[in-house]
Amino acid sequence: MKTTQLLIEIGLEELPAIPFLKEQPFIESKWNKILQDNECCVPFQFYSTPRRLCFIHDNFPLKQETKTVEFFGPPYSVAYKEGVATPAAESFAKKCGVSLEQITTTLKDNKEVLYFSCEQEGQEIAFLLESMIATFLSSLSFGKAMRWGRLSQTFIRPIRWLCVMMDDTVVAMNIYGVESTATTRPHRSISFDAIAINHTTEYEALLKEGKVIIDPQERRESILNAFIAIEQSQGFCIERDDELLDEVVAITEYPQVLVGTFDESFLMLPPEVIITSMKINQRYFPIFKNGVLTHHFVVVSNAPLGQAQEIIRGNEKVLRARLSDALFFYHNDTAKKLSIEPLKNVVYVEGLGSVYQKALREKAIGAILSELVPHLHRVH
Question: pLDDT value at position 376?
Fold first, then answer.
């Protein structure tokens, strides 16, 4: 059977990381199911960046295999009465698309029944791909979806380009109002112009030149290798947070690992406050030295060009503002001692006294419960 290399690239506006990561474990199985349903199930590689979903099949069949199709009809005793064909026999022949003379019989469940078999030639896969890709896209579940332009269809983000090629040939189709072309797109920092693809074997090299690493695992390894290099050169220990790393990999096409700093005066804040602000708000990785949090952090940028110092300064400015807010509220909170006395002036419910009195009641109830349930005395 003749085969080809099939490339499918679905180009999008930037995918939000969290919804994509939740759906990512199911993407390959969903595409594999569609391949099975269309009788062209072959191995493939699935790649993704924030701006593209990509499937590469190295040995994709041009046609479905020819198969034997069998038809089983009514029992012979029902199909023929005294040697004359009944409407049941005629209906079965019509269903098979042949004359009664071409119908034979066979045994099924120990009964003689009408039977017909024929060889069915497989369809050309190129004619099926548009429907297959459309079915795949509609099967993806990212939670929220959006419309754009005049389309009634929805997807997590607008689809901006589509490339479906078999070796050096474009497979014509239109999905979500986008025509398939022999082009891809480089990193946004490089250009917004399309890059021509002469053959599917050029695809990955063209993207590398355009500062796009399509393999998420390769992006992940490049980040971790950069972490190791920083640690070895500066004696740091960068916290490895797998969830944060997954998110950073999902939002970058060409990660660049940079080290920034913040004013050491902010270290008076509890480490948990600083780390939370870094990781949750900014997707930074905290840096430790000898087990102690330092005033350094790692930011993984998606800008491949020589803008490192500008990027670092921008991220330092953002973090400084967040830590300044945290320090202000921290000073406010620590200026007041933990006391329930001020609660005397806060009404709990009319007729039930103040919140202060409620707190005393709950304290008394807690003491009674601890006596009734001895294991509550233990401190975990």
Answer: 53
